[in-house]
Amino acid sequence: MSGPLLMTFNAGSSSVKIGLFSMDGDRVERIAHALIDFRHRPLTFHLVEGKAVFDVELKADGADHLIDVMTETLDWISQHYDLSELSCVGHRVVHGGDEFDGPVLIDDDSLARIDALSILAPLHQPQALRLIRAMRQIRPELMQAASFDTVFHRTNPELIRRFALPRELHDRGIKRYGFHGLSYKFIAAELRRQFPEAAAGRVIAAHLGSGASLCAMLDGKSQDTSMGFSTLDGVPMATRCGALDSGVILHLLQQEHRPVSEVEDMLYHQSGLKGVSGGISADCRELQRSDDPRAKEALDLFTLRIAGEIGRLSMSIGGLDAVVFTAGIGEHDAMIRASVAAHLSWMGLEVSDEANQQNATCISTTSSRVKAFIIPTNEERVIADEAFGLFTQAG
Questions:
Q1: pLDDT band at 33 (very low <50, low <70, confident <90, very high)
Q2: Nearest CA-CA partner of 89 in 44, 133, 26
Q3: Which GO terms describe its cellular component (predicted)?
Q4: I need a labelling partner for 277 at 20 to 30 A (CA). Which of 40, 104, 166, 283 fits?
């Protein structure tokens, strides 16, 4: 395939999603997407091109830098696409702190500023930086851009962003930032396109995947969100604990004398659905198939906390007109959606069982005072659009 191309990298703590887009006139169109999961050995490059699916074992292991992994990946992609036409690369970067209020071109200065924020996101930021540096070494002529997960929440009022801690800590950056912003930016735009009346009102979007958060919006702008300083905050997730009494951490460190590394691993990787279920699974689908009462309790706690957070966020925006479910669980799990809605029936939310089971776009009943929608998210589209915009401006 010929013509200018744009590539996106959506780096998680243990995987990277890759998107390949054609640049045509004033827009970009995705032509393929891929995944590399660093938790599995040997590394496998999983590519989806239309209806075709390819799985390729990689020789590189990615243990230190990603130069070998990305060189091998680009070599393989080049068998299908003319990567001499690759003009731009866009990256998802989890943390922009107060440094960035929009996407930026990556140069030595912006890269150093992104690196300095790694202390705020030690599990995610380094992975994005490894990808950026690998691509700079492999293809130094390419323009690269960074899109930040925190930027969408920069519209949160300062009072919302503040913890009840000494002011000097807030001034040093210990504050609520919020995440999943690229997903929420896409949802806000898509809701405005499909349901403009709902988009103009009081909306809470629930990004429910292995990482989960919620965002309260007024007229498409973030006003409050469940995640705060870190991606541990808010509702329980697949393996993360969600909001936690900080006294628990002090107890584990001071009374039980657990190493910090052990506590960190527990909070990020052994808690949430996995922890409450007693290790049965971090996957909602497997927990729903289990007869073990611990599996049911994990799911019940998950939906209870989501509904409770929707109640809190509704206060922040003065009520609730619509709920949007998105991401892997939000888009595909009817049981989770139904359970959340049942907790919120007092708010006037009624979900149609038939529409919910069919994963329809609108799943609320005609008599429901609160609308409920399912809108698939597309973070890669936002990364591509932002990178394309910067590429176009740069001429």
A1: confident
A2: 133
A3: cytosol
A4: 40
Checking if the pLDDT of 41 tops 80, the result is no
Looking at the structure, do residues 140 and 208 belong to the same domain, yes or no? no
Count of domains observed in the chain: 2
115 and 200 co-located in one domain = no
Which has more pLDDT, 384 or 37?
A: 384
Out of 148, 167, 187, a domain closes at: 148
**Residue 182 resides in a domain:** no
* Same domain? 238 vs 351: yes
Does the annotation place 210 within a ligand binding site? yes
133 and 37 in a common domain: yes
Residue 348 marked as a ligand binder: no
Residue 91 annotated as lining a ligand binding site: no
Q: Say if residue 379 carries a ligand binding annotation.
A: yes
Quote the pLDDT of residue 63.
60
CA distance to 253, 264, 265, per residue, from 259 (Å): 7, 9, 10
User: pLDDT, tens digit, for every residue of 50-72?
Assistant: 777 778 787 776 666 688 888 88
Catalytic residue among 37, 98, 149, 233: 149
Shared domain for 134 and 228, answered yes or no, is no
Tokens 């866009």, residue located: 90
Does the structure show a pLDDT above 80 at 380? yes
Residue whose tokens read 């000494």: 166
3-state secondary structure of 169: helix
**Residue 136, annotated as binding a ligand:** no
Whether residue 321 lies in the annotated active site = no
CATH number for the domain spanning 120: value is 3.30.420.40
